[in-house]
Write a structure and sequence with these properties.
The chain has 259 residues and is mainly α. The chain has one domain. Helix content is 71%, strand content 2%. Strands 1-2 form a two-stranded parallel sheet.
């Protein structure tokens, strides 16, 4: 019995160090820039999403160009390109992508010293899935003609695209969580460029194969920007520290200026 408090304390220490503690130090201006970036991404994403949603409900604006875009995509179809697009659709689909996310988050959480970032990634993915389901059933938008779908019929709702939203959340949030700790700006830029290319390919595959309208993909990416902004804000609040600052945001006694 005497060892129980020590055992409990040891268990809490392991949990605390693994899941609670992860801090990084930066200038106050750099932290402020992260908060500003988070706010701009979230506001821009929300603005574009609600603008697109309004167009979809009124069948005007961007949604009014959906049919023209669909007809143009039909002219680009070829046997070889269709195979490539199907592969992309499978990778970013509802079976393969969750497996990829699960493997990445579990491996990252086990191998990393701190599990804060993989847990945050998992939370972002769950949020994206929830948003896609909630909005899809609220809007109830029909998909493009079933007879023109190239990888089997899909009768679920079209707006927003769950494939594109999932791919965008995974690629963009992972890019931020990995490269925000990198001290070489060029590597960070390359990482985000690769993520953006992946998002574009995921969106193109869904449009090309005939499962979504352009406005569906735009809405998905804009929602993903909102999720990314929230992740940046939460991660910055939880981990970003200015040298000499305690968790509560106050200067420690050792670093406080003399009276």
């Amino acid at each position: 019995m005497a060892d129980e408090p020590a055992g409990k304390a040891g268990w809490w220490r392991v949990f605390h160090d693994k899941f609670v503690v992860e801090e990084r130090y930066m200038d106050a201006s750099a932290r402020k820039a992260l908060y500003i970036t988070a706010g701009v991404l979230a506001l821009a994403g929300a603005f574009v999403f609600f603008l697109t949603l309004t167009d979809v409900l009124q069948q005007d604006g961007l949604a009014g160009a959906d049919e023209s875009a669909r007809r143009w995509l039909l002219t680009t179809r070829s046997e070889a390109l269709t195979v490539v697009m199907i592969i992309l659709a499978v990778v970013f689909g509802p079976v393969a992508l969750p497996i990829i996310v699960l493997v990445v988050t579990l491996a990252w959480g086990i191998l990393a010293k701190h599990a804060w970032r993989p847990v945050l990634l998992a939370a972002a993915m769950v949020t994206g899935v929830g948003l896609a389901q909630l909005i899809g059933h609220a809007v109830e938008r029909t998909r493009p003609p079933v007879e023109l779908m190239l990888f089997g019929a899909d009768h679920t709702f079209s707006f927003p695209s769950g494939h594109v939203l999932g791919a965008s959340d995974f690629l963009l949030v992972t890019a931020f969580l990995v490269f925000s700790r990198h001290r070489r700006p060029k590597i960070t830029i390359i990482g985000f460029i690769v993520a953006i290319i992946g998002v574009i390919l995921a969106a193109l595959s869904r449009l090309y194969l005939g499962y979504h309208w352009v406005s569906d993909a735009v809405a998905s990416v804009s929602l993903s920007l909102v999720v990314l902004g929230a992740v940046i804000a939460v991660d910055t609040w939880r981990t970003a520290r200015v040298p000499g600052e305690t968790v509560t945001g106050e200067l420690s006694k050792a670093d406080s200026p003399a009276d």
